[in-house]
Design a protein that fits this description.
With about 140 residues, the protein is mainly α. The protein is built from eight helices and no strands. This is Helix-turn-helix protein.
């Protein structure tokens, strides 16, 4: 519903977020080839409640999202962003790949993201680290025959 002047009411924004997170969870579940019933068991959430979340009828709490993320074996941060709890992280596809890596701990992921972002800021500012600069000017000697 819209108010005069075309503005959306706050309740509509909540409904949109609930619908968006539900669709995202459904997509993740489908790509993981997990049934609704399996995910409800893995996440410790009732089957009807999970179904309501996926259909956008219910907006889950951060705690429920964390349980669902564990069941899907994805980062809770990804679900928090989709649900509007967290802002979209920076880093593009590299950041997404780091966050999606299931073999890294959350701490390791954060350290990698911090280093990556510092390099991006350096490059954007036009400053290059001495190591990167040295790598550009280093030549490999030719072998003599």
């Amino acid at each position: 519903m819209t108010e005069p002047g075309g503005a959306h009411r706050p309740i509509d924004k909540v409904a949109d977020l609930a619908s968006g997170i539900g669709e995202y969870i459904r997509q993740q579940r489908s790509s993981a080839k997990i049934s609704l019933r399996q995910l409800s068991k893995l996440a410790g959430v009732s089957n009807p409640y999970l179904s309501q979340i996926e259909r956008g009828v219910r907006k889950p709490s951060a705690e429920i999202l964390q349980q669902i993320a564990k069941g899907l074996r994805i980062s809770a941060e990804a679900l928090y962003v989709q649900a509007g709890i967290l802002d979209l992280p920076t880093g593009g596809p590299v950041g997404d790949a780091i966050r999606a890596d299931t073999e890294l701990t959350e701490r390791q992921k954060q350290v990698l993201l911090d280093v990556y972002e510092s390099f991006r800021r350096e490059n954007a500012a036009g400053t290059v680290s001495p190591a990167a600069d040295a790598a550009k000017t280093t030549t490999i000697p030719e072998e003599s025959t």
